[in-house]
Amino acid sequence: MGSDLKQVERVLGRLTKLKAALVGAGTGAWFGALVGLLLSLFADSGTAVVLLLLWGLLYGALFGAVWGFVAHLLTFGQRDFSTFGVTVASRFDIYCASEHAARAADMLAAMQTAPRT
Predict the structure, then answer these.
(1) What is the DSSP string of 38-87?
(2) Rounded Cα distance, 13 and 81, in Å
(3) Element of type H or E holding 111
(4) What is the rounded CA–CA span in Å between residue 116 and residue 108?
(5) Distance between CA 6 and CA 89 in Å, rounded?
(6) Most exposed of 32, 33, 113, 117 (fewest Cβ within 10 Å)?
(7) 7: which strand partners?
(8) Distance between CA atoms of residues 33 and 97, nearest Å
(9) Distance between CA atoms of 39 and 74, rounded to whole angstroms?
(10) Single pTM value for the model
């Protein structure tokens, strides 16, 4: 079990207006598809279901792209890098029944530890 958890943020690169719009379009497309799926519950035919999904996807992507572009534009270059957050543990504790403790210790001793990067 991991203990003493930390949030580590890794910088992936510069976030341009185009990348911000593309990320917004992807997020908006998922949300638009969800809205289209919910609206399709009230559709009369199978064709209407597909059309609602496609229109929801399209409008969601369009709105998301505009929103992502404008949101990045309004940061005025203060946060113009893309990051990826990871939760890491500082140490790991192993819990087991007392009758398995000796075997667990042997298994841990036999394991090769990976170098930290």
Answers:
(1) HHGGG-SSHHHHHHHHHHHHHHHHHHHHHHHHHHHHTTTTTT-EEEEEEE
(2) 6
(3) none
(4) 17
(5) 6
(6) 117
(7) 87
(8) 48
(9) 33
(10) 0.57
pLDDT by residue (tens digit) across 89-100? 887 777 888 888
Whether the CB-CB separation of 31 and 55 falls below 8 Å is answered with: no
Tens of pLDDT, residues 3-58? 778 888 888 777 788 888 988 999 999 999 999 888 888 877 777 888 888 899 99
Strand partners, 86: 8
Residues 6+ apart with CB under 8 A from 88: 5, 6, 8
* Coil/strand/helix, residue 14: strand
4 token code pair: 């003493």
Q: With H, G, I as helix, E, B as strand and everything else as coil, classify residue 95.
A: coil
The neighbouring-strand residues paired with 8 are: 86
d(CA 69, CA 80) in angstroms, rounded, equals: 12
Instruction: State in Å, rounded, how far the first CA of the chain is from the last one.
Output: 21
